[in-house]
Amino acid sequence: MKTFFQLSILLLFISCQSFGQEQTLVGTGEISHGGFGGPVFKYTQIKGEPAVLIGGRGGWIINHTFVIGGGGYGLVNQIEADYLINNKHPFINFGYGGLELEYIIQSDQVVHFSVYTLIGAGGITYKEDLWHDWDDWSSASDEFFVFEPAINVEINITSFFRLNAGVTYRFISGVYYSDLQNSDLAGFSGALTLKFGSF
C-alpha cells in the first residue's frame, strides 16, 4: 500500500510538470524578450562626394533572433549644391529614418551575422552652413521614400555591449528637388553600430 501511494504521488508530480510546460514541434513555447539602443555611424556618398551620417537605432529583441525597432540618420559634413543662392553655394541638409527589422543568426556565438532592413522616409533641403539655416532665403524641402537593406557581422564584446559592422544599400525614390535626383542620394554605406542592452 505504501509503495502504491508513493507511486501515485510520483505520477501526480510528473503530470503537474507536464501540464506546466507547453510542448511544441518547434522550440520550447517560451518567448524571451530583450532590447537595445545605441549610436550609428555611416560612411557613404551623397552626390558623388564623401558623406558621414550619424544617428541612432534601437529595438525590441524577440527570442534573441528577431528585432523590431527604428532608427534615424542625418548628414553631418558639408556637401555643396551645384548652384548659387545669395552668391553662395548652399549645403545639402539630408536625413531619413523609419521602421527597422533585423534577423540575428546564432546570437549566442561571439561572432555572428545579421540581416536587416529599414523602411521609411526622409527629407532634404539646403542650409547656409553646418549649423545654420538661411536667414534671408526660404529653402523649400522635398520628401522621399527610403528602403535600406544591410548585411552585418556582430561581435559580443560583453553581455550588454555588441559591436555591429556592415554594408547597406540605400534605395531612394521620390526626389524632385532642384539639382538633385534619386541617384544622387542612393548608394552603398559602411555602417558601424554600438549596441547597448539586454540581448
Describe, in plain words, how this protein is organized in 3D:
The chain is mostly beta strands. It has a single domain, classed as Porin. 12% of the residues lie in helices and 55% in strands. An 8-stranded antiparallel β-barrel has the order 1-2-3-4-5-6-7-8. Mean pLDDT is 85; it is low at 1-25.
Give descriptors for this structure.
single chain; 199 residues; mainly beta; Porin; 8-stranded antiparallel barrel; 8 strands; 55% strand; elongated; disordered N terminus
List low-pLDDT spans: 1-25
Strand arrangement, major sheet: 1-2-3-4-5-6-7-8
- What's the helical proportion of residues? 10-25%
Order of helices and strands: HEEEEEEEHE
- State the distance separating the first and last CA atoms: 52 Å
Question: What fold name stands as the CATH topology?
Answer: Porin
Care to count the β-strands? 8
How many strands, which pairing sense, and closed or not: the largest β-sheet?
8 strands, antiparallel, barrel
CATH class: Mainly Beta
Please give the CATH architecture: Beta Barrel
Strand content of the residues, in percent?
over 45%
Q: What does the average pLDDT come to?
A: 85
Q: What is the number of independent domains?
A: 1
SSE diagram, text form:
Blueprint: H1 2-20, E1 33-46, E2 49-62, E3 66-75, E4 91-105, E5 111-127, E6 142-156, E7 161-173, H2 182-185, E8 187-198
Antiparallel strand pairs: 1-2, 1-8, 2-3, 3-4, 4-5, 5-6, 6-7, 7-8
